[in-house]
Structures are given as structure tokens and as C-alpha cells.
Amino acid sequence: MKTDFLKQTKGKLIVSCQALEDEPLHSSYIMSRMAYAAMLGGASAIRANSAEDIVEIKKVVNLPIIGIIKRVYGDCSVYITPTIAEVDELMQCGCCDVIAMDATNRRRPDGKTLEQAFGEIREKYKDQLFMADCSTYEECVFAKKIGFDIVGTTLCGYTEETAGTVIPNIPLLRKLGETINMPVIAEGGIWSPSQLAEVLAVEGVHAAVVGTAITRPMEITKRYVEAIKK
To answer: In terms of CB atoms within 10 Å, which end of the chain has fewer, N or C?
Structure first.
């Protein structure tokens, strides 16, 4: 399965199809149509949030799925597949080629460290592919050490430590590509085809995820409106 996913996505675009409860397109049916449109447009894989959305997407899309569950626990800042409970849900739906989870150095909502939490997950699901959503180079290196299969720059710019970082973070991608010797997925801040081409040209970058710039029309519209104001 690992070989199939990596072969299908090498050097290609992965489209993130997500809409949270407070967003206009929040609907498993709508996300399935969004994913179908992305497939017709040439996407190599889909990243999606929630078991419900993923099941609906799989009904109409024959692409690999990177699955996550975004769930907020109180004031905890870790919310992308934050505990083993979310991993269990994704495994039970049976549609995820890869499961992605927050792999920052922040404390989990259950009080566990990443190493403790992922150790239990890896022991339970030995054959599942896991992607580490990281914010720094050091987090990516640590994710590799504890057994993740793929690292991504998903959370660069979105943690306290990386706030204000220009994304996509090309220097970080270059450093990862040169040194980490594992699949690196560029994610975060890719707004244009030229930026996508730039990150995929970085030696060692396996694939790239684009979400908001393709699948969130409210945010796309806001950018145009802000451009008018300026």
C-alpha cells in the first residue's frame, strides 16, 4: 500500500477538500463533489477531514485518501487527529490510505507526549501509513525517529513557535529534501500554480497539498476583495 500511494502521488498535486461546521460548504455530499471535481482536474490524491466526509468521497473518487479528523478538546492547541480515538474512527471507516496527525512538540489533549501517543498508535496499527503534520525541521526529524512514514510542513506558520513564518517555507523544504531521506509533502500557503511548481521543483519534495486556494471559495473571495481594498 505504501508503494502504491507514493508511486501515485510522486511529483503531483494532492487536493485538500475540507469544510468545517461554521463554513458555508460544510456537507459530506458537497465535499464528495469537490473531491470528484479535483479528481477530474487531475489531482493525484485527496486530503479530507472526518470519517463521514471520507466515506462519501470514496463513493465517487478512486484516488488515495489522506484522512484526518479535526477535533477541539478544550483549550488544547492540538486538533488534527489529536488522540488515538480519532485514529480509531479513521481506521474503522476503512478508506484511508494515509492517516495524518499533528506531530508538533505540543502536549496532546490527553496529556501524552507525541512519542507516547504515537507509540500506542503504531503498536495498534502496524501496517497503516501515517503522515506527520509538522511545523519545524526538528519536529520532522523526530517524527521520522518515532516511526512516521511521511512528513509534511502542514503546520509551519500555524504554531506559536513558527508564527509569522512566510509560507510555503522553501528553505525548510530544501533542508528536509537534502537531509531527511523520507517522503516530504509540502503543505500550507500554496496559493498559485507558480508556487506549486516552485515547491515541487525542490529536490526531495515528494508531493504537495493545496486546499484553500482550490476548495474554499469564501476564502478565495476574501483575497480578491482585499486586493480591491488595497
So the answer is: C
The pLDDT of residue 199: 98
Q: Exposed (0-12), middle (13-18) or buried (19+): which is 92, by Cβ within 10 Å?
A: exposed
Taking every pair of C-alpha atoms in the chain, what is the biggest distance, in angstroms?
53
- Check if the beta carbon of residue 42 is closer than 8 Å to that of residue 8: no
Q: What is the dihedral of CA 28, 34, 39, 45, to 10 degrees?
A: -60
Write the pLDDT tens digit of every residue in 132-187: 999 999 999 999 999 999 999 999 999 999 999 999 999 999 999 999 999 999 99
* pTM of the full structure: 0.96
Count: domains in the chain? 1
Contact 90, 51 (CB under 8 A): yes
Residue 230 pLDDT = 79
pLDDT lower than 50: segments of the chain: none
**Average pLDDT along the chain:** 96
Tell me the CATH number at 66. 3.20.20.70
Q: Which of 34, 16, 28, 83 is nearest to 54 (CA)?
A: 28
Determine the structural domain holding residue 36 and report its residue range: 2-229
Among residues 84, 153, 96, the alpha carbon closest in space to that of 123 is found at 84
